Structures are given as C-alpha cells and as structure tokens.
Amino acid sequence: IDIIGAPIFDERNMLKGAVLLLYDITHLKKLEVMRKDFVANVSHELKTPITSITGFTETLLNGAMDDKETLNNFLMIIYDESSRLSNLIEDLLTLSRLEKDEFKLTRTTINFNRLINEVLPIIQQRAEQKGISLTTDVTKDITMHADGKRIKQILINLLTNAISYTPENGDVNLSITDEEENVHITVTDNGIGIDQEAIPRIFERFYRVDKARSRDTGGTGLGLAIVKHIVEVHDGKISVDSKLGEGSVFHVLLPKYDKTSP
Ligand code: ADP
After folding, report:
1. ipTM summary value
2. Which ranges carry the Histidine kinase domain (predicted)?
C-alpha cells in the first residue's frame, strides 16, 4: 500500500485533522511481477533451443559430421529445435497482437463446416501418426459473426492439444452445436486428463503440467493462453471438465453476434 498524508488546519492555524490517502497498489505490483516473470520465461524458452542448436552445430563442425549417421541425427535435432523456435516466436507475436489495446477483430459471417474443412487437413496428419480417431459432429450449417482466422486458431490449438495429450489409438472429437444466442464448441479426448488443481493454471502463459511431455510434443506452453484471449475478445467463455487418466473436455461458448456494435 502507498500512503500519502497531509495535515488540515483551521482558520486560526490550529491543527484540525489530517487526510490520508491509501493507494492499494497490490494489483500494480502483481502486474509488475507478472511482467518480470514473463520476460524471464520468454528468455529461458528462447535460450533452450538456441543452446541446443549451437551445441550440436559445434560438435558437427569439430569433426562429428564425418560420420554420416551422426550428421543425420544431429541435423534432425537442429531442424526440430529451429521449428520449436519458430513456433514459439509465432505464438509470442500472436499473443502480443491480441493484447494490444488497439486490437480489433475482423468479423465476417463464418460458416463452421467450411472452417472445419480448412482445419482438418492441418490436424489429420498428426492424428493419423498416433492412430487417433478424429471425429467431428456439426449438427447443421452453423454460422456466426466472428473473426474466422482467430476461431480457426481456437480449433487448431484445442485439437492439437487433444491429440498431443492422448495416447496412441485414442479418440478425439470436435462438436459444434447451435445454441440460439451462442455457438458451443466442444473438444473431447480420452487422454491423460488434467489434475483438478492444475485446471485453473493451464491458461497461464508457459504453464505446463508436465514440461518434458509438452516439449516432446513440440508445445510452446502458449496455446491455451492464446485460446483464452481469443475467446475473451469475442466475449465468450471457456471451461474444462477433466479427470486424470480418463480424458478432458474443453467447452467454448461464443456469442453469435457482437453485442457491442449497434
Ligand atoms: P502446450 O504447448 O504445453 O500444450 P498449452 O497452453 O496448449 O501449452 O497447454 C498448457 C498445458 O495444459 C499443457 O502443457 C498440458 O499440461 C495441459 N493440457 C492442455 N490440453 C490438454 C489436454 N487435452 N489433455 C491434458 N492436458 C492438457
């Protein structure tokens, strides 16, 4: 708390009282701590792949590349780490765009069947590699007034997670239902599930239940933070039902029309 005080005198210059202003700066302090944590996290996340790329390149240049197999293995690691860096930077840019005060959604009439047809090819390959059956339920032609590019991002991030955190041969389902004022998106998996205590934290930037697992799947730790932002700028709601070892259900509720525009 910040305190500013001043005495009050009457007309004869006698002390009559005092005013005390108490500023609650807990919120500001919290923001400051969050900002510092974020910068530390970003630096660490950027440094890890760069250290790996530098290390493997050096080893190759110091003679390891004479062995064809080592050369191949190391180049693959360097390639993976470069992709990780590129994904991370892409996600950071997306988050920073969404967080700008002047950020504006580009709303058009979007059709979910069309959107799903654009999203599935991106996701399908990943599902097939793990033998995961990916199903979709769209009751009818559902349309809404929203930012198509961003809604697509919601679907991609939730489906990618569902596939990443579901063991081989599992099931992932995407369902879209029309609920009068809202469109309800549900992504269900029968994967590893999320501990009840971790659920409120998974939307934080860089929070992961299992760091090693997230890294293995190429995650940046920013996917759900991005989803939550997009949902919020659309005045929607996101929630999760999950049971450890049984699976997770992510619900996104989006109002069909922008209530703030006339
Ligand atoms: P990441 O890149 O690590 O997947 P996200 O922000 O997308 O980052 O998710 C944050 C964390 O939430 C993940 O690391 C994982 O621990 C957990 N998580 C997200 N989706 C699921 C899911 N469908 N099943 C189990 N855990 C999940």
Report:
1. 0.98
2. 41-258
